Amino acid sequence: AWQTSIDGVRVLWARGGGVRARVRARRGGFLARARARCVTLRRGAALRVVWRTDCCCRWLGHGGGGGFPLRAIGASRDRWAAQEPPARALPRQKSVRFGRFFGAAGDCAQIEARRPGGGFGEVAKVVDFAPRAPGTAEVAVRVRFAGINGGCETFRARAEHWFERNRALEGFALGAEGSGEVVAVGEGVEGLAVGDAVAFVGGAFAEFTTVPAVLCQRVDSPSAEAAALIISGTTAAVSVGETGGAAPGEKVLVTAAAGGAGHLALQLAAMKGCDVVATCGGAEKAALVSRLATQAASRGTAAGNCAASMAAETVVIDHTQEDICEAIAREGPYDLAVEHVGGRILDAAMDSLSGDASRLLIVGYISEYPHNGIAAPHLHGDLAERLFWGQQSETLASGATVRGNVWPEDRALVRAARDHVFELHREGLLEVVTAGADDFVGLDRVPAAVEEMLSGRTLGKVVATIAPC
After folding, report:
1. Among 260, 281, 423, 436, whose CB has the most other CB atoms within 10 angstroms?
2. Cβ neighbours around 184 below 10 Å, total
3. Comparing C-alpha atoms, which of 243, 232, 227 is closest to residue 266?
4. Is 254 within 8 Å of 279 (Cβ atoms)?
């Protein structure tokens, strides 16, 4: 971080802009926080400050992300003096001194709900909180990017299904997957050190979070793509692979194929040499889906999967151009359906399965989520909700299997699938499409990112930037 002095006060960081800023300063060894009302932005001024997400940079020996030039109002410019210290790499020691950081209320911010409500935007509030030091087998992470999982965040905020326990809490954190840098490690952690970039699962709508090390994946650098892969990529991998069991030559239906998990499942199926039928809405999404499937088939061939070169041309169903249910029935029957939408589309997919060896995986059912109001009538009622949250399976009269749990019982298979998608991406064989990282910056923009994801307008995985790298 840049250093400066204002009447002998060393500014460590400031938050805010315009005519107000929140300043954290040290004077004579005493750490104090104050409201600085005489602060405004002006191009070319000498002072540069660090965003609040980097409030612990002085303990890590690492200067934080972007800053802004400031000037004092009603004071001469010579009262502001700035100096940029030599760049220092984030240290990779086993542990760091966080006594003044962990457990210090107000040092960091997160998105929290004080009580359940009707949806994410209704209950989400940015609040100060005291980060928790990592315990055994845990790591603390400085969050850079957060993936937007609209369904889970909706039901977490409503305290429904798996999140009913939130009803008994006086406040609960929101957010799931993200990527960032490890800032501290607990006892018993192997393979991760301070300074490592990771993708992780757990509490990503915060400036810092503490998560089990087993839920982290080392990456080259924090990125929106890494945040997208840790849940959506792993989900796609098990849906097509370990649980779905897609085989070369099989016909695979992928609904919402331009979405966060759908665009990855589409590519993985094409790489395996499957005949893919993909649904989406709009010309831009249809073009993306067609391109991804074609490229994935050629990449599968390059990776040694000869069956990929024999895959038929991907069929793209654009529901803005034709009746989607009629089109799904026309292109069937299917050996595997990876279903993200629910409602009438789930009905059509179930009715188009090929027989007793076919399977349908309910990855989501976004058309039935509460933000849509009253769901349109459909044949199978609450089947998607019941199987998904109950993690159950049901055998149809045709012998086909409908599964609400995509995850293998053997967690080693889940970790192998996670490793697989990250390796494919690292090798350039799996394209990760993200949206929103440039538009939704900062915790206060996360509710808008959730709303955008639920709108269905975006391409790929919606990701918010919590703190720029």
Report:
1. 260
2. 26
3. 232
4. yes
What single DSSP character describes residue 204? Answer: -
- Strand, coil or helix: what is 405? coil
Q: Is the separation of the CB atoms in 179 and 144 below 8 Å? A: yes
**Calpha distance 41→58 (Å, rounded):** 24
Pair 443, 112: CB distance under 8 Å: no
CA proximity to 411, closest of 209, 291, 277, 234: 234
Name the percent of the chain lying above pLDDT 70.
73
3 state SS of 155 = helix
pLDDT band at 469 (very low <50, low <70, confident <90, very high): confident
- CA neighbours closer than 13 Å in the CB half-sphere of residue 385: 15
State the residue for tokens 């391409």. Answer: 459
Alpha helix (H) ranges present in 75-149? 120-123
pLDDT, tens digit, 9 for 90 and up, residues 204-243: 999 999 999 999 999 999 999 999 999 999 999 999 999 9
Give the torsion through C-alpha atoms of 7, 13, 18, 19, to 10 deg: -30
Give the model's pLDDT for residue 150: 81
Confidence of residue 415 (pLDDT cuts 50, 70, 90): very high
CB atoms within 10 A of CB 382: 13
Higher pLDDT, 183 or 34: 183
Q: Please list the residues that pair with 463 across neighbouring strands.
A: 147
Q: Residue 370: left if φ>0, alpha if ψ -120 to 50, beta else—which one?
A: alpha
- What whole-number distance in Å separates Cα of residue 52 and Cα of residue 9? 18
Q: Are strands 9-15 and 21-27 parallel, antiparallel or unpaired?
A: antiparallel
Helices and strands (H, E) in the chain, number of each type: 12, 25
Q: What is the pLDDT of residues 330-356, one digit of tens each?
A: 999 999 999 999 999 999 999 999 988
Strand partners of residue 336? 252, 359
Beta bridge partners of 119: none
Q: What is the dihedral of CA 71, 73, 76, 77, to 10 degrees?
A: 10
Average pLDDT of every residue of the chain = 79
Of the listed ranges 91-105, 263-277, 337-351, 413-427, the one predicted with least confidence: 91-105
Taking a C-beta distance cutoff of 8 angstroms, is the pair 255, 279 a contact? yes
